[in-house]
Amino acid sequence: MLEQFGQQALVHLIVSLMFLVIIWWSLQAFRFDVLVKNPKSPQGIVLMIIMTIALTQLVSSFFLDYLNYSRMLRFLF
Fold first, then answer.
1. At how many degrees (to 10) do helices 2-27 and 42-72 cross?
2. For residue 25, what pLDDT is reported?
3. pLDDT tens, N- to C-terminus, the chain (77 residues)
4. CA-CA distance, 3 to 53, in Å (whole number)?
5. String of DSSP letters for the chain
6. Distance CA 30, CA 63 (A)
7. How far is Cα 52 from Cα 67, in angstroms, rounded to an integer?
8. CA–CA distance, 53 with 19 (Å, rounded to integer)
9. Cβ contacts of residue 51 below 8 Å, gap of 6+?
10. Which of 17, 28, 34, 60 is the most buried (most CB within 10 A)?
11. Smallest Cα–Cα separation from 48: which of 33, 32, 29?
12. Residue 63, Cβ density class (10 Å: 0-12 exposed, 13-18 middle, ≥19 buried)
């Protein structure tokens, strides 16, 4: 029972880190200079980090919920 929680925690960490890297990489193509006065300033960098973390939370939660719900489908029949 406890090792199942450990495996689930490991999957959550790996998925979150994977999406963090993907989202950070994809946001590099976004033009922040249109929205922010000075995107290279500390405030611009912090905004980029906060946006990356927020998007990572949303995307990884969606993916992990989808994974868990698909695993629970076996209990339907």
1. 140
2. 96
3. 678 888 889 999 999 999 999 999 999 998 888 888 888 899 999 999 999 999 999 999 999 999 999 999 998 87
4. 28
5. -HHHHHHHHHHHHHHHHHHHHHHHHHHTTS-GGGTSS-TTSHHHHHHHHHHHHHHHHHHHHHHHHHHHHHHHGGGT-
6. 23
7. 22
8. 10
9. 27
10. 60
11. 32
12. middle
Rounded CA-CA distance 68/44 in Å is: 36
Name residue 22's amino acid.
Answer: I
Tokens of 15: 């998925």
What pTM value is reported for the model? 0.83
Q: Yes or no: say if 64 and 12 are a contact pair by the CB < 8 Å rule.
A: yes
